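tokens incoming
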């Protein structure tokens, strides 16, 4: 039976600090995807991920709702991203070619894989072209399956703003699919 985040947090706080590695293993992939989608430099992303985990370990006893660990970790990492952008004078998060949340259908034929790769790359470019807030909301909704209330909490916006940004992102992606100028290979 899988141990929940709440159980792992309780065990870490109860003195089993080695269980923190289970949390790191469970959440690093999704955190990396979100951080990497928000900064253009891989080294910056690595530093932000490391700092996220250091802060989480140091402040774990302040987590009021252990069942919302993922939202809390995302809040820490996105706050660090915003701080990095402010220090460097970045107005908006730069698009990132490293959005790697798409499946690799290795069992299909080479021609089908090539076509899928083209479609995935096209989708990555369209997602990277979205405004930063829409990209963040889309990522948190689709990749992390957060509710609009949770997204609002993570990003410091209203749930209505989250819904609006999600709607606009989906609308833009769909209109790009329907556009006669969309690349078809």
């Amino acid at each position: 039976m899988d141990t929940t985040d709440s159980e792992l947090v309780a065990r870490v706080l109860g003195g089993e600090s080695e269980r923190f590695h289970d949390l790191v293993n469970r959440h690093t992939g999704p955190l990396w995807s979100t951080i990497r989608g928000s900064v253009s430099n891989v080294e910056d992303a690595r530093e932000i991920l490391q700092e996220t985990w250091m802060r989480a370990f140091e402040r774990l006893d302040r987590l009021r709702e252990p069942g919302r660990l993922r939202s809390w970790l995302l809040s820490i990492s996105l706050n660090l991203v915003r701080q990095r952008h402010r220090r460097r004078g970045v107005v908006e998060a730069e698009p990132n070619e490293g959005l790697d949340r798409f499946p690799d259908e290795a069992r299909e034929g080479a021609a089908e894989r090539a076509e899928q790769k083209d479609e995935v790359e096209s989708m990555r470019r369209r997602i990277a072209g979205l405004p930063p807030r829409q990209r963040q909301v889309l990522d948190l909704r689709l990749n992390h399956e957060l509710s609009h209330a949770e997204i609002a909490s993570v990003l410091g916006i209203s749930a209505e703003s989250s819904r609006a940004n999600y709607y606009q992102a989906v609308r833009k992606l769909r209109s790009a699919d329907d556009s006669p100028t969309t690349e078809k290979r």
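note: The chain has two domains: 1-98, 105-185.
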